[in-house]
Amino acid sequence: MNTDKSAPKTAPKTAPKPVAKPVAKPVAKPLAKPVAKPVAKPVAKPVAKPVAKPVAKPVAKPVAKPVAKPVAKPVAKPVAKPVAKPVAKPVAKPVAKPVAKPVAKPVAKPVAKPVAKPVISLKNDKINIIYTCFWTSFDHTKEFLYNEIFNSPKYNAIQVLYDEFNNSDMDKTLNKADMIICGSSIRNEYQYQMMKKYGNKTILYISEPLEHFYKLSYNLLSNNVFRAYYGRINNNNNRIKLPFYKSLINRNTINNINNYLDNLSFDEFCKKEFCSLINRHDKGNTRTNMFNKLSKIQKVNSPSKLLNNYSNASFEKEGRDNFQKRHMFGLCPENYVTKLPGYVTEKMPTVCNNGSIPIFCGNLDDLDKKIFNMDRVLVYDHTNNESMDKVVNTVRDFMDNKEKAYLFYKQHPYTDNAADVFEQMTKDCVIRVKKIFGDIIKD
Predict the structure, then answer these.
(1) Which residue has the higher pLDDT, 432 or 161?
(2) How many angstroms separate the CA atoms of 53 and 382, rounded?
(3) Residue 301: is its pLDDT beyond 90?
(4) What pLDDT is stored for residue 140 in this prediction?
(5) Which 3 state secondary structure label does DSSP give 311?
(6) What is the CB neighbour count within 10 angstroms for residue 269?
(7) Could you tell me what percent of the chain has a pLDDT over 70?
């Protein structure tokens, strides 16, 4: 009995062999499955029940660490660093530097260079007369005052062109000049300030309607900055009239047109066409309305660019004088009506010299009215419709009554003493300029 009882006590020592088999089987299976992703489920169930603690710890650590670390580190670091660094730095630096430097430098250099402007040389042993601010084609040697006064060995008369004025030290030049003859074309602030500074030894030549074209010149005129003014302006105090039409009116032209009208027969007059207009533009609104009103009476022949209804080729072949002479009336308003009386150009004298009755719009002064026979001029105000209608009705009445129109037409276009008045006016211009600039002009 003792032998039988001791046998079972020693028997359990050989029992571990069958335990090793069940352990080998569950380990082989979970190693094959983790490759196919479903490893987590079969390992968790068999290990948790028989040997929960010892199996779970060794399996979880080696599997989790090697998989998670090597994948996260090599992928995240190499991708993020090389992409961020090379893209950000090279793009920002090369774009900012080349654009900023070349733009700033070339602009600054050319502005600084014209500071040292040359001084126009004058003659110390002469009375220096400077012509400036005239139009491009102006030639001072053909100017009235030059030929009447300054074409003499005692004077050094020079012309400073527009570009020379802007690129020279005109402050020093004008300071050395004895007298300045300034044209109407004061175009910029620099010229304005220079002319204003030396206005006391300057005479302004008025050749244009200043308030419409050259407002800087008009401002100086309005403030009486200059010592004197001459040209197309009324004759008063330091204003000296020298009309633009001076080359068109003399004793010969007056006698020629008077003889033509005196010998014109009624039949010859009746063969004439109605009215002419020769202009390129109507920027001053002095022409178009009157043209349209007169056109309701008969056709107004208009070559050139404005309201063209007549062959320019035929007009050029015939010539202005012959073209105008075969018309009873000539529509000849000024381009602009200026606030300054006495601004009269060649338009009305040209019509008068060819025998047509002038239909005029402009601002005549007292001297103009002593030259033109105002009884033969039809004057209208382009801003007043009633004034225009009055002239149109007069013209219509003449066209309905040719005998009346003939008598009106045969009047002389200039006054009987027009030549004397004109000659005296040109002499007075010279006398008054010498008197006003007596400290400079020496006979």
Answers:
(1) 432
(2) 118
(3) yes
(4) 96
(5) coil
(6) 18
(7) 73
Q: Residue 285 carries which side chain, given as an amino acid letter? A: N
Q: Which two tokens stand for residue 180?
A: 């300045």
Secondary-structure breakdown of the chain: helix, strand, coil percentages, each rounded to the nearest 5: 60, 10, 30
* 65 or 343, which is more confident: 343
Residues 219, 213 contacting (CB under 8 angstroms): no
Report helix angle 288-295 to 385-400, nearest 10: 30
Backbone φ and ψ for 373, nearest 5 degrees, come out as -80, 100
Q: Choose among 276, 283, 347, 361: nearest CA to 310.
A: 276
Instruction: Pick the more confident residue, 31 or 214.
Output: 214
Tell me how far the alpha carbon of residue 24 is from its chain's centroid: 102
Task: State residue 119's pLDDT score.
Answer: 66
For residue range 41-76, list pLDDT tens digits in order: 444 444 444 444 444 444 444 444 444 444 444 444
* Torsion from C-alpha of 226, 228, 232, 235, nearest 10 degrees: 130
Query: Any long-range contacts for 235-239 (C-beta under 8 Å, 24+ apart)?
Result: 235/342, 235/365, 235/366, 235/367, 235/425, 235/428, 238/436
**pLDDT at site 244:** 84
Q: Based on the number of CB atoms within 10 Å of its own CB, is 343 exposed (0-12), middle (13-18) or buried (19 or more)?
A: buried
Alpha carbon separation from 37 to 34, 48, 52, 66, 72 (Å, rounded):
5, 19, 22, 15, 18
pLDDT digits (tens, 9 = 90+) for 87-104: 444 444 544 454 445 555
**In which order are the strands placed within the sheet that holds 327-331?**
300-301, 273-277, 327-331, 357-360, 378-379
Q: Residue 13 and residue 9: Cα distance in Å, rounded?
A: 8
Q: In the CATH hierarchy, which fold is given to the domain comprising 256-417? A: Rossmann fold (3.40.50)
pLDDT greater than 60 at residue 156: yes
Sign of the alpha-carbon dihedral angle for 290, 295, 296, 298: positive
Give the start-to-end residue ranges of the domains of the chain: 127-226, 256-417
**DSSP label of 305:** S
Beta carbons within 8 Å of 137's beta carbon, 6+ residues apart: none
Contacts of 207 (CB under 8 A, 6+ apart): 135, 183, 184, 231, 232, 244
What does the DSSP 8-state code read for residue 439?
T
